[in-house]
Design brief:
The chain is an alpha/beta fold. The protein has a single domain, classed as Ribonuclease H-like superfamily/Ribonuclease H (Nucleotidyltransferase, domain 5, 2-Layer Sandwich). The longest helix is centred in the C-terminal third of the chain and has 27 residues.
């Protein structure tokens, strides 16, 4: 499939805890790196956020191949999401991350998407780079939390 390749990953220090997401977009030999963080989140939320942010960075409808090491994100998007949508974004026992599944649904609608699962931490270059970006985001969240504790006099020695 021609088009944009989007490599994504999420990272979390503790689960829940401070986390980060990373996305590497590759198109016609050009690359764009993106990352961000949340101070209190889960790894699954960061995996989904990376995909959403990668898709939302695209300026037009295009063929996209999403590479992820998250079976949760892959199977959710390809096997379960349509059923959740038909049931009003619910499932028995509650639908975790319903807000992000709905955002992902909207982000996907303008693109022809192919999903590829890659084994994490296996040397896959795109996945390793996305992981590095996600870790960078997670480290920023951890630093902010540490600085906030120090400012508020909560630092212990």
């Amino acid at each position: 499939m021609a088009g944009v390749k989007v490599y994504t990953d999420g990272a979390c220090s503790g689960n829940p805890g401070p986390g980060g997401w990373g996305a590497l977009l590759v198109y016609n030999g050009k690359e764009k790196e993106m990352y961000g963080y949340e101070l209190a989140t889960t790894n699954n939320r960061m995996e989904l956020t990376a995909i959403i942010q990668g898709l939302n960075a695209l300026k037009r409808s295009i063929e996209v191949t999403i590479y992820t090491d998250s079976k949760y994100a892959l199977e959710g998007a390809t096997k379960w999401m349509q059923g959740w949508k038909q049931k009003g974004w619910t499932k028995k026992g509650g639908l975790k991350n319903a807000d992000l599944w709905q955002e992902l649904d909207v982000a996907l609608e303008n693109h022809d998407v192919k999903w590829v699962w890659v084994k994490g931490h296996s040397g896959h270059v795109g996945n390793e780079r996305a992981d590095g970006l996600a870790v960078k985001g997670s480290e920023q969240a951890q630093l902010i939390l540490k600085e906030n504790k120090e400012v508020n006099g909560e630092q212990t020695i």
